[in-house]
Write a structure and sequence with these properties.
Distance between the termini: 39 Å
Radius of gyration: 20 Å
Shape: globular
Strand content: under 5%
Number of strands: 0
Largest sheet: none
Order of helices and strands: HHHHHHHHHHHHHHH
């Protein structure tokens, strides 16, 4: 085999491995369609029922913070990736065999360690394996296939949940496919990040202060924390939103799928929009999210709800991809694992805190279902205006 062919094969495996990591990291909503069924099965309130989904987010926060200190320094990337993949696959399927709510929460907590670890390592894997000039393309592909996997899991899960609440967890057997790809990548590839030596897409390059935690990094951390708080009432709450119109897990699964489809569309169009919109890319993506939230609040039939949640998904996936891209441009590859892990930890912390946010809004307004969507949309619009005036990209170009 020629050297050129070997490089081509290695790049193909590197791209497939990076995408497979996204497929295992972008599935926190894989059981969203069954949340209302699980809530009914254990006689919980709607806000308490959301903890079935959000408990995995809080454990992912703790593990992601741990990752930020040990990834690539105390422990190599390969062992961490393999550990997270094994834990995720086991804890995702095991709840099918449970009957107690306490054990269910424990397994969902383990699932948070698995998917949260993979999610935190997404940007690290892309930075380590993919040349800088192709990075935005692979980030877009990762979002497309990652949310595509979530889309399939949600769709299948909706039908399985109508059989029984615990059957929804069998949808995670599909994770065997990216799991095998990750195993192959870990066996053949070198995950040690190299310094950037080529010009990234959209004419962006790392800052001269790339060893320091600069303002763009803090901007992305804050943005993803609040994004987690405000997207969760749509992402996790879609089951409750759809149940107000049609009390069917299959319908809820279909609605949830449209969020993932929106994220897939966002992943496809992200590289071009990021390059064309330049400094205005992030504000536009945040505004799309805000429009999706308002639309979901106003929708009173399933087609409109699906359309609104799709728009929200487009904005969310491109916002997340932009955050990853900006971090990659603002920091040395040696520290990308740390800043990426913290960003995703803050996002998942925001998702966990969303239950408290919804309860607080409900206590004040009497509406814990729709008002959180409107308030989140307003605050995201404020973020969009702030980043239009003080673009994080200006300091990393």
């Amino acid at each position: 085999m020629s050297k050129a062919q070997k490089r081509k094969n290695d790049y193909g495996l590197a791209a497939a491995t990076a995408v497979a990591v996204f497929c295992m990291g972008q599935i926190p909503g894989s059981i969203d369609a069954a949340i209302s069924k699980i809530t009914s099965a254990f006689a919980l309130t709607s806000t308490s029922g959301m903890y079935v989904a959000t408990v995995s987010c809080i454990t992912s926060v703790a593990f992601s913070i741990l990752l930020s200190f040990i990834a690539g320094r105390k422990i190599g990337y390969k062992p961490l990736i393999l550990f997270c993949a094994v834990v995720e696959l086991f804890s995702a399927v095991a709840p099918f065999f449970t009957t107690g709510f306490a054990l269910l929460l424990v397994l969902r907590g383990l699932f948070g360690i698995g998917f949260g670890g993979m999610q935190s390592l997404e940007n690290t894997v892309v930075t380590a394996l993919i040349p800088a000039e192709r990075r935005a393309r692979i980030l877009g592909m990762g979002m497309f296939f990652g949310f595509g996997m979530n889309c399939v899991l949600q769709f299948i899960g909706g039908f399985l949940a109508d059989i029984g609440w615990n059957y929804v967890f069998l949808n995670h057997l599909l994770l065997i496919i990216p799991f095998v790809i990750v195993l192959a990548g870990c066996a053949r590839l070198n995950f040690k990040p190299a310094e950037q030596d080529t010009k990234p897409e959209a004419d962006c390059r790392p800052s001269d202060k790339s060893e320091k935690l600069s303002a763009p990094i803090y901007q992305m951390w804050i943005m993803m924390l609040f994004t987690g708080v405000f997207i969760a009432p749509l992402l996790i709450g879609c089951s409750f939103l759809s149940s107000q119109i049609n009390d069917s897990a299959a319908v809820a699964g279909t609605v949830a799928v449209f969020f993932s489809v929106g994220c897939m569309v966002g992943g496809l169009i992200y590289p071009r929009l990021f390059a064309k919109l330049n400094n205005m890319a992030l504000p536009v993506f945040l505004l799309l999210m805000a429009v999706g939230l308002v639309g979901c609040g106003l929708a009173r039939n399933i087609p409109l709800l699906c359309a609104a949640i799709l728009v929200g998904g487009v904005g969310f996936s491109m916002t997340q991809a932009s955050g990853m891209m900006i971090l990659g441009l603002a920091i040395s590859p040696k520290r990308i694992a740390m800043v990426s892990a913290i960003m995703m930890a803050l996002f998942n912390l925001g998702v966990f805190l969303s239950s408290i946010f919804e309860e607080a809004v409900g206590a004040v307004t009497g509406d814990s279902l729709y008002m959180p969507l409107y308030i989140g949309a307003v605050i995201l619009a404020v973020f969009a205006a702030a980043y239009a005036l003080f673009s994080p990209l200006k300091n990393v170009r």
